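[scheduler] slot 2 assigned
[scheduler] job type: sequence-to-structure, two independent chains
[scheduler] chain ordering preserved from manifest
[runner] begin chain α
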Amino acid sequence: GTPLVASVAEPQPANQQAYDMYLGTAKYFAFAGLFFCWHQRSPSKFLLVLYAVVAYHFSLKMSRLLIICGPIVSVLGGLPIGYIADWCEEQFIGLVCGQPPVVEEKPLPERTGGMGSILRFFERHFLPKIRPPEIVDLYHAKDRFATKVWWLDRPLRCVVAVGIMMAAVKHSRQPMKDYLEKCERIAESFSNPQLVFKSRMRDGSEMIVDDYLAGYKWIKDNTPEDARVIAWWDYGYQITGVSNRTSIADGNTWNHEHIAMLGRILTSKESRCHKAMRHLADYALVWAGGHGDDMGKSPHLARIGNSVFPDHCGDEDPLCRKYSFYQDGRPTPMMAESFLYKAVKHNLEPGVRLNPKYWKEVHTTKHGLLRVFQVMNVSQESKDWVANPANRVCDAPGSWYCIGQYPPALAPLIAKRRNFAQLEDFNAKDGRREKSAYTKHIERERSGEL
C-alpha cells in the first residue's frame, strides 16, 4: 500500500514466468519430492513441507523472495532422484550379498499426546480408505516372495533397476544439456555489473559502456571531499561507494517521508526545487540517455512525493497523473517544468535547458548516460548547521548512529509534510494517523469501488 514499494520491481508478486526462469524444471522434481517426503518415518519430513509452504507463500508476495525457494527446491528436487538411485543401488548390492536376513520388526510403544496421537487418529480414520486391505495383502505377498524365492526376486529387481537407469540416462541427456545452458545464460546476465555493461553495435561488434563508472569517478576527482550529491535514492550507494561523497538517500533509507521529500524536490519546477536543494546539496546527479534513465522513473518520484506532500499534485490526483507523458510521448506541463525533466534533456531538445541562475552543467559522460550539475548559491549557513556536531541527535554520546536533522531553513517545507500511513501500518494501531490520498485510492481499488 505504498507508492515507494510500487515503484520498485523486486517487491512485486512473483509470477509464473519468474518461477520458470529462476527455478526451471527443478520445481517439478520438487513437487514430486513433497510426496517422497512421506517415505521418511521420522518427523523431519515436516520441516521440508513447512519450509516449502512458507517459501512459496512469501515468494508470491514479493518476487525477490524467490531466493528462499532455491534451497528447498534443491532439497525436494533431489529426494525423488536420490531415493530411486538408492533403490537401484540396493538391488545390485542385494544380488551380490545373497538372501537378505529376516528382520522382525517389533512394534514401538505407543506414546500418548503430541504428534503420535494425531498420526494414530489419521491412521484409524483415513488410512483404511487410502490403503484398502487388497493393497496391504499385495504388499505382504511381495515381501513373502522376496524372502522365500530370493534367488529369483533378486535378479528380477536388478533387471528393473537397469531399465530405470537406462531410461533415466536416455531421457535426461537433452533436458540436462538445456538446463546447464540456461544456467550459464542466467549466471552471465547476473554477473554483468550495472555500472559497466556491453552494448552491441549495428554492425554486430560489441563495445564496453562505462559511463556510470566514469561519471562517479569524475565526481570523486573533481568535487570537494565534503560535497553533498543529491540524486534519486537508487544511486545513493554508488555515490557513496564509488565517488566517496555524501548522498542524500540510499537503499538503506527507511524513512518514507524523507524519500518523498526527495521525490518532491526533484520533480518540482526549477524555482521551487532550487529553493530546497540549495540547503541540502552541492551537486545534483541524474541518469539520462534513455538506458533506464530518470525520466522513466520520474512519474513514480512525483507520486511518492505527493503521498506525503499533498500540495505537489493534490489529493484529487493521488496517482499524480499531472506529472506524466501524453500518449504521443510529450511531457505534461508539470513534467516539462520540472527540474528532473530539464536536467535529463538539458540542451538536448530545442528550448529545454536549466536556468543558469540555479544550476551549472559541470559534466556529462561520453554517451550521455550520467549528468552532473553544480547547485548555484548553496546555503553555507545550512551546510555549516548540518555539519555542526552540536546539532546531531545520536542514540548515545559519541555514537555513530545519529538521526538526520534538516537545517532550520527547510522548516516551512517540512511543515507541509503529512506522515504517510500505509495499508499495512502495524505501528499505527490506534488508527489516528491520517491516511494519504494514495492509500485511500488503493483501499477503494481493493474494495472494487474503482
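[runner] end chain α
[runner] begin chain β
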Amino acid sequence: FWDGSPDPTHAVRPLAMARHALVTATSTLLALKLAPAVGAVAASYGLVDSWIGEDFFERFDFYMGADPSKGAVRYVDRATAVSLGLVNASIGRVYIGADLGVVSGGHGRPSVRIQSHETFNDGLFIIKADHMPTGCGTWPAIRLYGEDKNQQPPMWGEYDIIEGTNIDEWVMTSLHTTGSCDQSNTKVGVDFAGDWQKKTNGAPSSRCQVTAPELRYNQGCAQLGPADSRGPRFNTLGGGTFAAELDPAGLRIRTWFWPAGREPSDVGRRRPDPESWGKPYSYFDLGPEACSARHFADMRLVIDLDFCGDLGGPTFATGCLSEAKELSCQELVEGHPEKLRNAFWSFRALDVYRRAPASPPSAFGSKFVIALVLVLVASLAVFVIVQWVLAQRRLEDPGLLCQHDPSLLDHRGWGHAKRTLSRGYAEEVEEIPMARKGQEELDAVVDGAGCGGPSCVTSCRPQRGPDRAQFAAHA
C-alpha cells in the first residue's frame, strides 16, 4: 500500500491481502475446532478401576442358562459356586474353577460363567494370571461380549481376548461379528507379530462374520499368540500378563502378552503406554472398509470355564491323541475328574483403563475467540476496501515517473532511459534503449515528465504529468 511518500513503489496488492486474511482466519477457526479432537486421540490411559479384591464377584452376574456353546458343562449360581468351592476372592487373588466330583448321566460338569454388570465400548484391560485352565477337554475363555435380552450374539460383536482348548500352548484371540468384517488386508509381521489360525485349506481365517461360507458356523477370524501364552508351561513358568485394547477411536483392536516378570515397567506403575510396547501379537482393523467399529457395542466382560463344546470337542482328537483313542471328550470330562486338576483360573490383576477425555473449552471462551476472529476478519476487509479506493484515485492521476542518469550514456552515445508507470496497485518498470539523437531530444523526454533536464537523476512524481500515450510518444 502507498504510505503517502513521493515514491509509491512499495505496492501490495489488496486482493492478495484479502486472500491472506481469509486463509489466516479460516486456519484459526479450523485449529480451534480440531484441537479438542486431536487432544482426545493423544490422551493417555488412566486407571478407572482395579477389580481384584474381596468384592470381585459383586461386579458380575452368574450365568445359569444352558451353555450357548453346547459344552459338557452345567453353569451354577453364586451360592452353589461358593458352597462347592468353585470361586474365591481375596485382596490379591481371585480363583475360579470347576467341581471335581464324579458326574454321570450326561448332565455336564458344574462350572462357572460370569459376566460383568458394566458394559464397555472402549478401554484397555490389563489381565495378570498366574494360572490358566489347561488339560484335555478344557475350553476356558475371557471375552468381551455384546448381548442383552433384546440383542442376541453376535449382534453387538464378540472379542475373544484369551481362549484355548485342551493342552494347546498358545492363546487364540478372535472376533465374531455379523455383516461384513474382513481382515484379509491385516498382515502377519506388518500389523501383528502372531499368526493367523488356518482354515482346512491352509488359508488364513481372516473373515470374522459368523456365517462366512468357507468357515464353520461362528468360527470367526482368529489369530494365535506366542508359545507358552497358555498351556502347561504357562502355568509352570508363573503365568503372564495380557493387555487387551478395544480402541474404536483408533480404528483397531490390539492384544499383547508378556511372560511373568517381563511386563513393561509402565504396566507395573499402572501408567500404561501401548505405543511403547511394540507390535502386538494380535491386531484387528476397525476401519470402515475392513470392519466398522459399529460391530462392537455395549460389551460385557465374560470369564468362563467350559468343557468340550463347539470348539473343544472337534479339537479333542488332535489335541489329546492318547485319550481320544479310548474316550470321547464328554466321557473324559464327566467320568475322570483326576484329569482336570489344572482346570482353574487364578488372577492376580484385572485393571480397567480408559483414555482421559479432552477438556472441552468453556462456552464463554469459545464464543469470545470466535468473536475475536470475526472482528479481525471484518477489520481487514475494511482496510482492503480503503486501499482499493486509494488505488482507484491513483489511476486517475497515473503518476508517470522518470529516471534519467547521464552516467548511463557511454562514449558511443547509447544509453537507457527508465520509465515507471503507476497502475493503481502495481508498478511497472521498463528499460527503454535509446540512441542519442541529440541532447535536446533526450532533454525533451525528461522535461516532458517534469524532471528538469539532464540533472534529473532521481525519481520524480509530477503534479500533473502527461498521460501514457504522450510518454510513449516522447520515448
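[runner] end chain β
[qc] chain β: Residues 1-15, 21-42, 398-475 have pLDDT under 50 and may be disordered.
[scheduler] slot 2 released
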